[in-house]
C-alpha cells in the first residue's frame, strides 16, 4: 500500500493551483495584447512562422516605399517633360511667326524678347528638383543644376550621363532618373552649312528630303550610315563636286551630269542650291550633327537680331535660319516625346509591381493574423472557465489542507 503524506497532498495542491494560475494569466495576457503567441514558448512552431512572416512583411513594406518613391520621381519627371514640350511648342509657334516676310525689325525684336523668356523657362524646368533637393536631370550629379548659364548668356549641360535605378522587388529594378544630356543636348540637328571658303557664295534651300536615300548612298559593303559631313566644291565652269565623309572615309556622290552654281539639285536625298560661288570655293555641310535645344533657340534668337534681309544672301540666310530652327525644334520635341513614352512604360511597370506587392502584403498579413491574433470570444470564454476552475481548486485545496489524522481523533 502506498501512503500519501500530508506534505505530498499540500505540494500537489500548490502545483495544481500554480498551473491553473499560469494558464489563467496566459489567457489574460492574450486578451490584453490581442495576440495568441506572446513569446516563443507559447507555441514554438507558430512563433517561428510568425517571425518569418514578420520579415516578409517588412521586406514587402520596404519595396512598397521604394515603389512609391519611384512612382513619385517618374511622375515628377513626366510632368517636367510635358511642360518642356509645351514651351518648345510655343517657341515653334513664334518661329513660324518669325518666318512671316511682312514682319518689321521691331516685330522680330519682340519675338526675340519672348524667346529669351521662354528659354529661361525651359532652363528652370530642366533644373527641376525632387523633394530631397536633387536635380532630376543631372544624372549622378544631383547636387548641382543640370543646366547652367554661362557668362555669354548661353546654357550648357552641367551634369553627367548617369542614370539612377531603384529596386522595387526582388531582382526588379526601374530607372528613376534620366540625364538631361540624352534628352535636351544630344538632339539631331538640321542640315546646315558649317563652314565656307567663299567670300560671296552661299547655299540656299538646304534640306534633307530623303534620309533613306542618304543612307543608301553609303550602304556598301555594310548597311549605310548617315555621313558626318558633305563637302561641295566648285570647279571650273561652276560645276559642283559633292563628297561625303563617314568616319573619315570620303565617297564621291556627284551625280551625272554634275550640277552647277545657281542650279537647284538633290544628291543622296539632300537638296540645295549653290549661289554666287566661284571656282575653288568649298562649303562644308553638317548632316549628322547634334545640337542642344538651348543651342537651337539661342541660334534662332541671334539670327533674328542680327541677319540683314535686305540682300539676297541675307534673305537666304534668314530663310535657312527659320527652316533649320523648325526642324531642330521638331527634333527636340520628338526627343522629349520619346522619353515620355519610355517613362510611361516604366510607370506601368511600377504600378503593376505595386499591385503585386499589395496583394503579397495582404496575403502575408492574413496568414500572420491567423497564427498570431487572438479570438476574443474564445479567449473570454476560456478565461471565464479557467477562473471558475481556479476558484473551485482553491476552495478544494482549502478544505483538503485542513484535513489531518488529528482531526479524526
UniProtKB/TrEMBL annotation:
SUPFAM superfamilies: Phase 1 flagellin (SSF64518). It is found in: Bacterial flagellum; Secreted. Residues 15-140 form the Flagellin N-terminal domain. Residues 328-403 form the Flagellin C-terminal domain. InterPro entries: Flagell_FlgL, Flagellin, Flagellin_C, Flagellin_N. Keywords: Bacterial flagellum, Cell projection, Cilium, Coiled coil, Flagellum, Secreted. Gene3D superfamilies: f41 fragment of flagellin, N-terminal domain. Residues 53-80 form a coiled coil. Its main location: other. GO terms for biological process: bacterial-type flagellum-dependent cell motility. GO terms for molecular function: structural molecule activity. The keyword Glycosyltransferase does not apply. GO terms for cellular component: bacterial-type flagellum hook; extracellular region. PANTHER family: FLAGELLAR HOOK-ASSOCIATED PROTEIN 3, FLAGELLIN. Belongs to the bacterial flagellin family. This is Flagellar hook-associated protein FlgL. It comes from Marinobacter santoriniensis NKSG1. The lineage of its organism: Bacteria, Pseudomonadati, Pseudomonadota, Gammaproteobacteria, Pseudomonadales.
Amino acid at each position: 500500500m502506498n501512503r500519501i503524506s500530508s506534505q505530498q497532498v499540500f505540494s500537489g495542491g500548490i502545483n495544481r493551483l500554480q498551473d491553473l494560475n499560469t494558464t489563467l494569466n496566459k489567457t489574460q495576457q492574450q486578451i490584453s495584447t490581442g495576440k495568441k503567441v506572446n513569446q516563443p514558448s507559447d507555441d514554438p512552431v507558430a512563433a517561428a512562422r510568425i517571425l518569418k512572416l514578420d520579415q516578409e512583411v517588412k521586406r514587402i513594406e520596404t519595396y512598397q516605399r521604394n515603389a512609391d518613391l519611384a512612382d513619385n520621381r517618374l511622375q515628377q519627371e513626366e510632368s517636367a517633360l510635358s511642360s518642356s514640350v509645351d514651351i518648345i511648342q510655343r517657341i515653334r509657334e513664334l518661329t513660324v511667326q518669325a518666318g512671316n516676310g511682312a514682319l518689321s525689325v521691331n516685330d522680330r525684336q519682340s519675338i526675340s524678347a519672348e524667346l529669351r523668356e521662354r528659354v529661361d523657362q525651359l532652363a528652370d524646368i530642366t533644373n527641376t528638383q525632387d523633394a530631397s533637393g536633387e536635380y532630376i536631370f543631372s544624372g549622378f550629379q544631383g547636387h548641382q543644376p543640370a543646366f547652367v548659364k554661362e557668362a555669354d548668356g548661353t546654357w550648357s549641360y552641367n551634369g553627367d550621363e548617369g542614370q539612377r535605378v531603384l529596386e522595387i522587388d526582388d531582382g526588379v529594378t526601374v530607372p528613376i532618373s534620366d540625364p538631361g544630356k540624352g534628352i535636351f543636348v544630344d538632339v539631331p540637328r538640321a542640315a546646315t552649312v558649317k563652314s565656307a571658303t567663299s567670300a560671296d557664295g552661299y547655299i540656299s534651300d538646304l534640306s534633307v528630303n530623303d534620309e533613306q536615300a542618304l543612307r543608301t548612298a553609303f550602304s556598301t559593303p555594310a548597311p549605310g550610315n548617315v555621313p558626318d559631313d558633305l563637302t561641295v566644291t566648285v570647279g571650273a565652269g561652276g560645276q559642283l563636286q559633292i563628297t561625303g565623309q563617314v568616319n573619315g572615309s570620303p565617297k564621291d556622290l556627284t551625280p551625272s551630269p554634275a550640277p552647277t552654281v545657281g542650279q537647284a539639285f538633290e544628291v543622296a536625298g539632300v537638296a540645295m542650291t549653290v549661289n554666287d560661288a566661284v571656282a575653288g570655293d568649298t562649303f562644308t555641310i553638317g548632316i549628322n550633327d547634334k545640337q542642344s535645344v538651348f543651342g537651337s533657340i539661342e541660334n534662332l534668337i541671334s539670327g533674328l537680331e542680327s541677319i540683314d534681309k535686305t540682300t539676297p544672301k541675307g534673305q537666304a540666310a534668314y530663310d535657312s535660319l527659320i527652316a533649320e530652327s523648325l526642324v531642330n525644334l521638331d527634333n527636340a520635341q520628338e526627343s522629349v516625346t520619346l522619353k515620355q513614352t519610355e517613362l510611361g512604360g516604366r510607370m506601368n511597370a511600377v504600378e503593376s509591381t505595386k499591385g503585386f506587392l499589395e496583394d503579397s502584403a495582404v496575403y502575408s498579413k492574413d496568414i500572420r493574423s491567423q497564427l498570431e491574433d487572438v479570438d476574443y470570444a474564445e479567449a473570454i470564454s476560456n478565461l471565464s472557465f479557467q477562473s471558475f476552475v481556479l476558484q473551485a481548486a482553491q476552495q478544494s485545496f482549502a478544505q483538503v489542507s485542513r484535513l489531518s489524522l488529528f482531526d479524526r481523533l
